[in-house]
What we know:
The protein is an alpha+beta fold and 364 residues long. It has helices at 19-32, 37-52, 63-71, 100-118, 136-143, 199-208, 228-231, 245-261, 294-306, 322-334, 340-353, 357-360; strands at 14-17, 82-86, 90-94, 120-128, 147-153, 175-180, 188-193, 217-218, 224-225, 238-239, 276-283, 336-339. The strands form 3 sheets. It has a 7-stranded mixed β-sheet with strand order 2-3-4-11-5-6-7. Strand 3 (90-94), helix 4 (100-118) and strand 4 form a beta-alpha-beta unit. The protein is globular.
Amino acid sequence: xxxxxxxxxxxxxxxxxxxxxxxxxxxxxxxxxxSDASESQKMAHxxxxxxxxxxxxxxxxxxxYYVGYVQRxxxxxxxxxxxxxxxxxxxxxxxxxxxxxxxxxESMGMxxxxxxxxxxxxxxxxxxxxxxRIGDWPLMATAAGCVSLxxxxxxxxxxxxxxxxxxxRRLSANPIAAxxxxxxxxxxxxxxxxxxxxxxxxxxxxNRGDRAPQGxxxxxxxxxxxxxxxxxxxxxxxxxxxxxxxxxxLGVIAExxxxxxxxxxxxxxxxxxxxxxxxxxxxxxxxxxxEFGFDxxxxxxxxxxxxxxxxxxxxxxLLPGEIEALNREKRLAEGIPLDGQTRAALLRTGEEVGxxxxxxxxxx
Length: 364
């Protein structure tokens, strides 16, 4: 095995890494496992952008997992979104088990173009690799002046969440995302898991030696715990839905829309690979008649929200998506924080696939 670093076990150390340097390492890693230049750059872009936004659970911590999927034949590099069926306002896409960041970008491009032509488009993705940070897809829509809504599932490979009142894993994290463009500020982007905590955040917490949020996970006997290691025990624990029955209900709807409607399949046991399904609705608001202008209505509502008295005068009232914008500004200026174990995994994976020492040295 080709080596240029000695990588030890888990570390509580933290490193600050420049975003562009991190992209170079990630891009080179994907290039070494067969991704062409375009795909390598896209993978680096979306993974590092997730870190910049503060969503470390969907950032470069995923690199070693994605590389492992390719090595085990669970994901195929250089696949593209294939249109299965299409009308003026409906598109069905098969991802061919390619990287979800590539499939997602290509599929959203088709949906946005269709919405611009017809006013609305419902787009269904089946058989895609992990779609990454789902908030990237409403960001694409808002950049084109469109509103969008997204529902995602994982067809059973990512069974993580117990149903309300249950102990055993029966649902994936089943994210829901939405985006609304703004004239006078960053877009409003909602990107939530219907689980009380994303599984990637448990990985980050375990790497850092942190505790899981109170009330987010149970052990294999249904007892509340804050130890992320309990979630990965044998037999494993489970994540709870957020908001008890409310999050559970949203998770069920996301499952059915992304699984049954989109055609990717609902969660079940015995699935041997991570298959994402997504149902997306994109609307061009300029095509809808209204008494008031869309942009004015959005800005007036934003001003109304922010005019509320504050519990803490030092803390601003933020819109969905504003914390990510602030995180991005801070991390671009100061560097992206990597815990020692995530950095070690990047180094180890890079070494195994033959990334040059000089490139790996960019990780600090």
